[in-house]
Amino acid sequence: MPRRAAARTAKLASLPLGIAGRAVGGWGRRLTGQSAEEVNAAMSAKAAEQLFEVLGTLKGGAMKFGQALSVFEAAVPDEFAAPYRDALTKLQAAAPPMSVRQTHRVLAEQLGRSWTRRFESFDDEPAASASIGQVHHAVWHDGREVAVKVQYPGADEALRSDLRQLQRFSRLFQALVPGTDVKPLLAELADRMNEELDYRTEADNQRSFAKAFASDDQVLVPRVVASAPKVVITEWVTGTPYARIIREGTQEQRNEAGRLLAEFHYSSPARARLLHSDPHPGNFMLRDDGRICVIDFGAVAQLPQGAPPALGRMMRFALEGRSEELYSVLRAEGFVRPDTDIQADDVYSYLLPLVSPLTEERFHFSRRWAQKQAMRMGDMRGRDFRTGRSLNLPPHWLLIHRVTAGAIGILCQLDAELALRSIVERWQPGFLD
Which of 3.30.1330.50, 2.40.50.100, 3.30.200.20, 3.40.50.300 would CATH assign to domain 100-155+195-235? Predict the structure, then answer.
């Protein structure tokens, strides 16, 4: 992991420069006769390839930024996505491990010099690794199997450094999300990611979720055993990872995994007053008893009033063709900036395809559907592209947007068919009002 600020900055700087270079090259290929669809698909694939290659080597904030984007892999056309799909999956759940000596040093600092007495056994070989920590399998002193997540030494310094650099490049990253005011969005992302550095906060989040879903017949949240600022210990759980279901699951498994994921995300604000905000396949498993197991509660949105009713009203107005009312809600919530001149009908046309999963009793989430939406919104010659450039993502909607888009990305990777509308009708405030 490059620790020196100069080395990390150089790697991060290569991203927007590479994206800008490909944009220029794309215009050149159009002049030579290639279609907009071919050029856009090729540019998307090359941008994603470089994005995940660079972010995956850095860990810290950069890798977490990459994990947040990796769920959109389903929207990249198959012929371009195939060469690096494995790399995206690895980014979601893997990073080079720290040494045994480093691991023991962190455990001694966080749990005390006699930390080994707390365990009957401790496996020095990590069972999994992620952006700012790695997980070890162990047996607690009372005989329970536990998962021990240990934060990488220097992860806090690296994460904060990466986020500062990402904020410096806000203008260049504008190319990834045209129309959005990126600077405050990155500031909000930085604030939320900073919260993830203290594992005691993560432990509190997990305790809240575990209590809300205790004895639930569809959701399992492992209980917290112990926690410290850089170590959190939870019950050890097993199941079929969603990444494996995506690769080789039966259609029945895919559909059930998708249904459980949607049910968990839409019900959490009502049941826990919280929203699990790190939706990627590495955080979900399908257990043999039919439940979805959810892990990693570092990124959580606090929703003391539950899910915002404005989201339900937006969905309903789009479905019912009430473009003026949809536009009013979007403007009131900050999705349309006051200085923006944009027509309500254009916004309606832009958003209508995104609520198509709610128009049918059962909807098939597929890579093809995701790719179609990505191409529609990314075609620089189309009206939807121009409309998208005029829309903003308000910072207070960041995590809700991330969860909604990320969950849909997983559903498309799963190729799942499910009755999403019935789930939304049950749990989303404002939809039936």
Answer: 3.30.200.20
Alpha carbon distances (Å) from 196 to 3, 298, 329, 352: 19, 5, 32, 35
User: How does pLDDT run across 333-371, given as a tens digit for each residue?
Assistant: 999 988 788 999 999 999 998 999 999 999 999 999 988
240: helix, coil or strand?
strand
Distance CA 206, CA 300 (A): 9
Specify the amino acid at residue 358.
Answer: L
Instruction: Let me know: does 51 contact 69? Beta carbons within 8 Å.
Output: yes
Whose CA is closest to 195, among 279, 301, 304, 299? Answer: 299
Measured between alpha carbons, how far is 200 from 227 in angstroms, rounded to an integer? 6
Domain ranges of the chain: 5-92+158-192, 100-155+195-235
Distances, alpha carbon 266 to alpha carbons 192, 257, 349, in Å = 21, 14, 25
